[in-house]
Amino acid sequence: MTHRLGLTGSIGMGKSTTAQMFRDHGVPVWDADAAVHRLYAPGGAAVAPVSALCPEALEGGGVSRDRLKAALAQDPELLGRLEQVVHPLVAEDRRAFLAAQGDAALVVLDIPLLFETGHADVDSVLVVSADAETQRARVLARPGMTSEMLDRILARQMPDAEKRARADHVIETKTLEQTRAAVADLIETLTQAERPDA
């Protein structure tokens, strides 16, 4: 049996770094954001249905996320229609990934809005977390990011405390060494649990 670990966490909590640490241990990782990029790229499965909903989002044979964002700002109702098109395609991409993993003891499903969308079929959930000061410092160090933009993003995300309360596992991402050790421990715990002789 493969253990499907959902990986999530608010912006700036170290989710991408943590996902890479699982990859470094040879654990297959499916990335929801990367799946959307594939679907929006020229030839991607979402290009035709999204451009039918929002023709102005089409650019260079693919869907421009910037143009789509601008259209969503103009028409908030577009989001619901867009999700009805994109979510099933993302779910199909995830199913194909899982089917390709054979008898892997552990796979990670990296889903930024796992709790908010509730669309993932996972066995347990890992939340990565850091204190609010560390989170703000990390995000505001990103090019083009402002305090106002960060506040808008955080307003759309479930509060960190609630995510931690709902998680099966929490990793504090204070330092790389600490995070790396916690990832290794969790892999050991979850893969032992999945062994038939455990």
Order of helices and strands: EHEHHEEHHEHEHHHEH
Poorly predicted sequence stretches spanning 5 or more consecutive residues: none
What structural class do the secondary elements suggest? Answer: alpha/beta
The CATH superfamily of the largest domain is identified as P-loop containing nucleotide triphosphate hydrolases
Number of helices: 10
CATH class of the largest domain: Alpha Beta
The tally of domains stands at 2
Rg computed from alpha carbons, rounded to a whole number of angstroms? 18 Å
- β-strand number: 7
Q: How would you sum up the global shape?
A: globular
Sheet with the most strands: spatial strand order: 2-5-1-6-7
Q: What percent of residues adopt helix (DSSP H or I)?
A: 40-55%
Second CATH tier, the architecture of the largest domain: 3-Layer(aba) Sandwich
What is the residue-averaged pLDDT? 91
Distance between the termini: 13 Å
CATH topology of the largest domain: Rossmann fold
